Amino acid sequence: MAVAIAGTLDTKGPEIAYLRDRLQSLGLATIVIDSGILGEPIDIVPDIDHAAVAVAGGTTIEAMRTAGSRGRAVAMMRDALQKLVRQLFAEGRLDAMVSMGGAEGAVMGAAAMMVLPIGVPKVLVSPIASGYHYFAPLVGTRDMMVVHSVVDILGLNPVARTVFDNVAAALRGMVEHGQPLQRPDGRYVAVTMLGNTTAAVMALKERLVDAGYEAVIFHSNGVGGPAMEELAESGQFVGIIDYTTNEVYDPLVGGIHDGGPQRMEVAGRLGLPQVVVPGCIDFSVWNRGTVPPPLQERPRYDHNPEYVLVRATREEMGQLGDIFARKLSAAAGPVQVAVPTRGLSIPNVPGGVFWNPRADRYFLDRLTAGLPASIPVHAYACHVNDPEFGRTAADLFISMLSDA
Q: Which end of the chain is more exposed for a tag (fewer CB within 10 A), N or C?
């Protein structure tokens, strides 16, 4: 069992040597990879030096050093490290990976681990795994274990040794007892959910179970939807019930639940059966205190002490109808749309701060006008979080697969 260890050995050499030795003392083989650019390794000899990493990426260490800026050089090393790790894994030479570093080292190491499949142990140790740092570069859509180093990675003091020892023990446990992702042997259905749709999705899940399917639920927070779609591409699901599609709206206004430009397109491209619900598309999500001035006069809802929801306008709801129609019209497989007409989120109820049936109707009208006749749109006098509506969405999906 081999663990790859990546880090900038020109600044973190002694610390990575310590982690290497701890892993070896626990019976694990190691492959030390140098992602440093400018200097030479300190107190450690890598198994794969930075020149070899650069060559694996189709370039040279000299080209990285003369790239013109620190950011460009780091980007080149990050890309080279990803290619090298992908190659090592394809050759069966690594079973797990760990990276330690500050800002640049952590971002490069994390990017490299993101090419490994779900189920392969991945541990990132960094002081930037804390506070207000943006976590997308550290986690992506993978099952990363992120460990806050507490102290900076410079020196082998009691705090650092404790953290590094525990990381080594965790890796040993994961390599020894971990579970790789298997090709599913049952009928699994991907479903998207937020707190605003939990009650309905719980009912939906039970209805699927009764019909012989198992739901795999994804939190549609800007990462869950893309992660679901990546797993769909690997053949994990027989279909998708995209119940909570808010990740399509946030990109329009800059909210944090941004699913990216391909969100809600992958299932269609794959030809997977899908039922689509416009759950929670009536709001964008913001960290408290970050709502931009143009949106501050709109209806707002305090979802919890950390997050604020901001209502979409009628014009934006119409724009969303066009976007949904464009994305779903391109689907190669069967699609049905289920629209609840008594509210798309918890605060979207009569008397609630998001209640605006005129805006929601505009979404439905534009969606219906833009879809071909082959994609039916079902409107139900229900709220999106009504368990009965959840069961209805499940029944649509079950009937679709039965017809197929």
A: C
CA distance 271 to 268: 5
Alpha helices of 114-197 — where are they, by DSSP H?
136-139, 158-177
> Are 204 and 210 in contact, with CB atoms under 8 Å apart?
no
The mean pLDDT of 166-175, rounded to a whole number, is 96
CA distances 273 to 48, 279, 404, Å, are: 45, 18, 9
Q: What does the pLDDT look like over 184-222, one tens digit per residue? A: 777 999 999 999 999 999 999 999 999 999 999 999 999
Which stretch of DSSP H or E encloses residue 62? Answer: helix 61-65
pLDDT at 133: 66
Q: Distance of CA 27 to CAs 38, 168, 173, Å?
A: 33, 11, 11
Look at the block and give the residue holding tokens 């650092």: 160
Q: Of 228, 163, 217, 177, give the one whose Cα is nearest residue 193.
A: 217
* Cβ–Cβ under 8 Å, residues 307 and 352: no
